[in-house]
Design brief:
The protein is mainly α. It has a single domain, classed as Orthogonal Bundle (MetI-like fold), CATH 1.10.3720. The longest helix has 39 residues. The radius of gyration is 22 Å and the shape is globular. The two termini are 23 Å apart. The mean pLDDT is 79.
Length: 260
Amino acid sequence: MKFIIKIIKDLPAYLWSGWGAIASIFLFIAFWDLGNQLYGNLVLPSPKETFSTLFTMLYAGTVWGDMILTITRAIYGFSISLLVGSFLGLISGLFLTASMMSRPIVTILVGMPPIAWIVLAMIWFGMSDMTVIFTVIVASFPIIFVGALQGTRTIEGELKEMADSFNLPFHMKLFDVYFPHIFSYIFPAWVSALGMSWKIVVMAELLSANDGIGAALAIARSQLDTPTALALVVIMIGTLLLIEYLILEPVKREVELWRD
């Protein structure tokens, strides 16, 4: 509880320090506007037209249900991958045999195109939420698993000897010695898997669902409604940025204070 309260108290200072990231977003929007001037509204609507369409959709309330549904599916799939992938990766990292046996399985999961998993999931589960969630799990699981495995495998033997020589209690070894090292590997894997989940959930919805942001994108594509399509993309990117920079990044900074 104290950990969460401290993160909330430090949030204003953290937001103020993110001016560089905000500047890069405005730079991206500037290039976006340049692309609009070069290629026209049909190919690339202007940022003004896109955000105007976005505000209209949000004000009308037509997109809120799709947003909540897509975010729920992505969070379900990502959460399952995070829990199972982190646990199995940490366990596998403790045993050399398990680590070696898991490598070809991870290669298969990573090498399988997401579109193939979507097709198989549609055959197995039909046009249901399970198809989307399953695809998210399969796509993000190997990223988290490898991060957890590498974090465990790379703990130096000298670090363990040092902890043993000082006769540290188990909880101190776990949280003050091992956890910071493992976290430096597993947290970037979580962020990468989160981004993957967001991309896959939209793709899966576009091909296998009748609702959600992906299904709305499919409708916009069929109607050649580029402003609406870009507005939906902005919703997904904005949601991902909010989760990463307002939730995950402050947690990372708090846990990695030992680096300072």
